Amino acid sequence: MPEQISVLVVDDEPIIRAGLSAILDSQADLTVAGTADDGEQAVEACARLRPDVLLMDIRMPRRNGLWALDELGRRGLLGPGRSRVLMLTTFDLDEYVDDALAAGASGFLLKNSAYEELTGAVRAAAAGHSALSPAVTQRIIAGHLSGRRRPGDQELARLRELTERELDVLRLIRDGLSNAEIAGRLVVSLHTVKTHVSRVLSKTGCQSRAQAAVLARSTLS
C-alpha cells in the first residue's frame, strides 16, 4: 500500500465538499481525514486531526481562507512536519494569489482544474513543493505580483542571515526551479540542495517554498 496522505477539505458549499472528497478518496494514496465549512472550523479541525494537507476555499462566509491561513500560522500548525495548505477558488485574481502565498499557502488552484491537476497538487503540497495552476504560475513568473509593492524593512531583514549560496538557492526557488533543477544549475548534490532549502525556509521564517518565492520576488534582483 502507498503511504497515505491525509487531507482536510474546507469549503462552504456541501456539494463542493462532497465532490472534492470523492475525488480524493478515489486515490489509493489519498484519504479525507475530515471536512469543514469555514475558516474557524478549519483551524480547529486542523489542530485536532493534523492532516498533511488542507484543501481550502479562499472565499467563505464568516471566517475565510486567508483568515484561516493567518491563524494556522499563528498557532504554529503550518510548515515542514506539520500541515500544508492548498488554496482552491473560482477567482483567478492576482490579489488572492499574492495574499495566499505570502501567508504561507503551498499552492493555489482554480476549481475548474482537471482531476489529475488537483490530486497532483495535493501530493506536491504534501511533499513540501509549490503547487500552482499553470495559469497562476505563468503570471507569477512574469512578475505581475512582485511589481505591485516595494520591500519593507522587515522583509529585507529576513534575508540578512542567509549565506551567498543560500541567496542563490532562494533566487532559483523564486524562478520556479525544482530541487533537482537547482542541483543541476549549481552543480551540487540533491541532498545539498535540500539542506540549503531547509535552511532558507528556517532563516527567513517561511512556511513553504511558495512563500519563500513571494519573499524573493519582492526583495531580490
TrEMBL record:
PROSITE patterns: HTH_LUXR_1, HTH_LUXR_2, RESPONSE_REGULATORY. Residues 155-220 form the HTH luxR-type domain. It comes from the Bacteria. Residues 6-126 form the Response regulatory domain. CDD domains: LuxR_C_like, REC_NarL-like. It comes from Streptomyces longisporoflavus. This is Response regulator. Keywords: DNA-binding, Phosphoprotein, Transcription, Transcription regulation. InterPro entries: CheY-like_superfamily, NreC/VraR/RcsB-like_REC, Sig_transdc_resp-reg_C-effctor, Sig_transdc_resp-reg_receiver, Tscrpt_reg_LuxR_C, WalR-like. Transmembrane segments: none annotated. It holds the Pfam family Response_reg. The modification 4-aspartylphosphate is found at residue 57.
